[in-house]
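Lay summary. Proteins are chains of building blocks that fold into shapes, and those shapes determine what they do. In this project we predict the shape from the chain. Here is one chain we studied, written as its sequence of building blocks.
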Amino acid sequence: MSLSAFESYVQDWTKTNWCPQALSLHFEHRKDFFAAIEKLWSSQNYSLSSGGKRFRPQLVFAVAESLNLPLEKFYPWALAVEMIHTYSLIHDDLPAMDNDDVRRGLPTNHKVYGEAAALLAGDSLLTEAFGLLANEYKHNAEQAVELIQILSDSAGPRGMVGGQAWDLFSEIELNKNEILELHYYKTGALIRASIEGAAVLSQLSAEDRSHLRNFAELIGVAFQIQDDILDYNQKDEDLKNLAQRFGLDSTKNLLIEVSQAAQKEIDKLALSGISNWTPLTDLIRKNQLRQL
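And here is the predicted shape, written in a compact code that computers can read:
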């Protein structure tokens, strides 16, 4: 699955709607604003354009490809989800959170631009994601509202942010099911949203959407289980890493189990006979084989 066209869309969108020249038009009377907004733009673009797996956009496009729908219709949704994901990484790396120095082989945002700029870059990405959806899908107000609701639920206290809060503030040792539930919120919620939004744009039936949601919940958890396997280090004591707590072999078996359950949901979708869901199956396998 090629992401080159999507990357071109991201670049074109940022240059048209988000560059210092475009943003500074709102503050023509303040010449000093341009320098400030230029630093903000550089900071947020540094992280948004730094590559990564783009797993969430890949899920979006896998649904579109399975249904033979034009990918262009899905670009704004995929970008909005990726903007939310990128903002969360910028903030997670800050000293007040995970205090990381490297992300995707590069210095983290705050190491390059400072903590204040990194905070604002994350804030900007979060806000612009919702503006992007409102603008790009305004021709279908009902659809736009549903997309905004899905993204809000998955990114906020009922999803990713809630999961991060649980991870940071929990003072008790979690059991296996509780760690899986934490993964469901902290990592899985935004992955689930990727699929749910794609289903909305595809105008699928309620039954097909239900199967896709089930698949999305499972692949989201499988993604984090694989992260736990890749992050495994016998010298560390991360009590919320499944491989550290319950053993590497046990966690690998759990990944197989969850991946098989995700495949079963795709098999149910295939029974309708209207689509070829191979792209989603490929992503299950891709997750199982991926490396850091």
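What the prediction tells us: Residues 60 and 194 are 6 Å apart (CA to CA).
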